Amino acid sequence: MRRGAGVWRRGARVWPPAFGGALLLLAAPVGAAGAAGVAGGVPWWVWPAVLFVACFVMGIVAVPAGIGGGTLFVPIVGSFLPFHLDYVRGAGLLVALASALAAGPTLLRSGLGSVRLALPLAVLASASSIFGALLGLAMPVAVVQILLGGLVLGIVAVMFISKRSEFPLVREPDALSRALALNGVFVDRATGQAVSWQVHRTWQGLLLFTGIGVLAGMFGIGAGWANVPALNLLMGAPLKVAAGSSGLVLSLVDSSAAWVYINQGAVLPMIAVPSVLGMMLGARIGARLLDVLRGAVIRRLVIAVLLFAGLRALLKGTGVWP
After folding, report:
1. Per-residue buried b or exposed e for 127-161, using 16+ beta carbons within 10 Å of the residue's own CB
2. d(CA 75, CA 96)
3. DSSP-assigned letter for residue 234
4. Cα distance between residue 231 and residue 290, in whole Å
5. N or C: which end of the chain has fewer CB within 10 A?
6. 171-179 — which CB contacts under 8 Å span 24+ positions?
7. Helix, strand, coil proportions of the chain in percent (round to 5)?
């Protein structure tokens, strides 16, 4: 990373500073390519409007599906809108953070989010996400695009083949789980019943979340796609508790990695602000739907969208589909 006359240089790419880059985009005449590669012939204000609407819809479906907003944001925006992938990844972490923070109060009040369960996992994942962010920014964009496409297709496979259990059977918590008091009670409003839960395989969960943090920081997609299966299938948390606690984990993991992108000038307000606003509004609606909707229908929709976006990212990185 070299710092030149007012720009950040990285290999053959030139990064304007975050606020300066936004001003260049706003000042770019219609038909001229902006600093982040905005397509010609389209007024600049169209892209913030498109981002706001798209992120509003993503926020609604992300919470009931049990994934972070960044999991949808980065592959969709990075593949179909004319922004540099580094800026998209930087905004993706802020988007995932915003959706998690917006849904957090509702999840905590309903008992679906457990601070005790989320905190020890988030501490390790947030530390490893910093390493992942530094690694991702050091890699060529084409390589990141190909890896992102492969990762998204892997996420689709995990979501498709994993048979999540609404209420996994945990016969006995392990010693670490008992020491950390990783248990609780929540009221399932779909049935009106109070459900007691506890977890096991805590050491394995801590190790897995360390690896999840690396991937979250590297690709800027958050980690909701991996948090929920890990909490539900590995550790035995009920599905709704896993989805709710995943949002609390995201709020710590994404904030750590986001600072790396901000420090490197890879966050543009023109991209981040409308995306964050749309995601926060959508996530508040999605958090309310989590209580009354079964996630199966939402999951099928998310799988279809991610499959298309993953193929698009893979082909774009290889140059087959520019």
Report:
1. bbbbbbbeebbeeebeebbbbbbebbbebbeebee
2. 13
3. I
4. 17
5. C
6. 172/200, 173/198, 173/199, 173/200, 174/200, 174/201, 174/202, 174/203, 176/202, 176/203, 177/202
7. 70, 5, 25
Report the alpha-carbon distance of residue 198 to residue 196 in Å, rounded. 7
Query: Per-residue pLDDT for 163 more than 80?
Result: no
Q: How many CB atoms lie within 10 A of CB 263?
A: 12
Task: Supply the pTM of this predicted model.
Answer: 0.72
Identify any residues that bridge with 184 across adjacent strands, giving them in sequence order.
Answer: 197
Give residue-wise pLDDT tens across range 170-214: 888 889 999 998 988 887 776 777 888 899 999 999 999 999 999
65 strand-pairing partners: none
Tell me how far CA of residue 9 lies from CA of 80, 108, 171, 192, 266, in angstroms: 25, 43, 56, 57, 12
Which helix (H) or strand (E) element contains residue 184?
A: strand 183-188
169: left (phi over 0), alpha (psi -120 to 50) or beta: beta
Size (the chain), residues: 322
Question: Would you state the structure tokens that stand for residue 71, as one six-digit string?
Answer: 């999991």
